[in-house]
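Hi R.,

Here's the chain you asked about this morning:
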Amino acid sequence: MRHVLFPLLFLSCVVAIPAQSQSFTDVTTLIGLPSDETPSFQAAWGDYDNDGDPDLFVTNGSFALDAGPSQLFRNDAGIFTVVTAAAGDFGQGKSFGAAWGDHDNDGDLDLYINRGGSVGEENFLMQKNADGTFTNIAPQAGVDNTDGTGINVCWADFDQDGFLDLLVIHNPQIDAPFSRLHRNRGDGTYEEIFAGMGLQVWGFSAACGDYDNDGDPDFFLANVWDGVDPSNQIEGNNTSRLYRNDGESFTDITAAAGLSDTGISTGVAWGDYDNDDDLDLYINVNVPSDGRLGLNYLYRNDGGSFTNIASQAGVADRKEFGVGNTATWGDYDNDGWLDLFVTNVASNPNRLYQNQGDGTFVDQAAISGITQLDGVGAAWADYDKDGDLDLYIPRTGLLDGVFQVSSDVFYRNDGTANRWLHIALIGTASNRAAIGARVIAIAGDLRQLREVDGGSGLYSQNSLDLEFGLGQRTSVDSLIVRWPSGTVQVLTDLATNQRLHLVEGETNPTAVAATDDATPSTATLDQNYPNPFNAETVLQFSIPTAGPVQLAIFNLSGQKVATLANQWHPAGRHALRWDGRDDDGHQLASGVFLYRLQTDTYTESRKLLLVQ
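And here is the predicted structure, written out as tokens:
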């Protein structure tokens, strides 16, 4: 493998690859995710415990006064456990947007949460502690926005000083303040800088991305409101705007870029759908009940100016009645072309637009098994590390203007034979989470662009890993990484079907979880570690085929005291944690315990020692 550093050059040579059909399976209850009918808004993927598995935060969309907290789900090799109570106080009641980012550059992810969406609700900045818990530091950091109506959020290093800044979008309401950009001072505190720039707007969502290829993040603000009466959102001055980052200020270039006609919009997402090395923009439209605005927009980036090609591309998604919500890009079939998932509510179908590689898309939602109506947010991640993107959809039904009870749904991608490469970036001179980094992968005739996204559009944050589908190509000729610091790093001759960790400035990436040999030939149960243990221990096992698995803890009298797993598991290697508590949450006394793995064809037990 050769590694070089040189100035970034843009070349383009792409050939359309025939699309493949494939299926998704609803595994929501099989892998430990919630099956109750609690409405949700945001899905945010982030590996908060640094174990290589993307974990999931879902905001509570309930408007009930007695609603519980939003939920943090820890991913242990494809099985999810609710750890909210143990991880910290994430607040009770409804929350809207949330996004992961390493705000203090300490190597683990922190979480910002827009709480409530009403004047007087305090937002949270949940800082990750060394012991795995979180503490809300928003008040002392200056980002609690207690007078705010925060609805959406994204992280980006707008001033390129190596620390993530925080863009908080405020929903227009009576007495509500304008949206805010909090600049990270690098000492754990923030200062609001929009007011000093004269930017006084409300909005609904924002998407950050370097649309003009100049190395700094710009942002698109959806459904901007700058009228006198924020309660009148239909008849007033609704529009959306593109703000170019000019270093010390932002310039509204909406009209000059050809983006004036965007309607009353909700979800927005940047993605290079045509593989020409610049970010294109999809906009989902929020339709009034009289149906005046029914078409979404796909704006092709033509070197900094934009052309709406949604109708000819087949992604206009006309809604006879209802409300469009989020949109998110991801190459779900690993053919090298970004596909598009779009959610709607009010009994409108969600859309899975498969990119045909020729500038057009075909809706494959129904044929692929994505059949639920209504969706609010949506987010992609490879939760089971098998090389393809899986999809979580928070759902809050809306019918005749009233929120209905709905259950979230999680779809496992059952994959194709196409190959892939996933990249996890770690910044040093740049922000640690590498948000804003841009990577181009060149494999023969295929060239693709991805950017690390700190939360984008409406209620969506995909995994911070960058995922490249490669069709049947067996190697990547060049991987060009432009870090937020401006450093350009190039890797060559990379094998496919692997996940790489790349640290800024280092020439040798670390390969993790390559899957060619990932499926074990036999079932095994490993010795727990650490052993003896006090606070927590890890129990690992492998199974060669998918099926029901039970992993339980017993005392020496043979009584079962704790069940760690009792559900379907995919084939592969798995890890579960035990904190020494029984199924009722009571801390057990010191002593020797047995843990037993049981499948349809295999049973094994081992001993462990708990020391209090």
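One quick note: The radius of gyration is 24 Å.

Cheers,
M.
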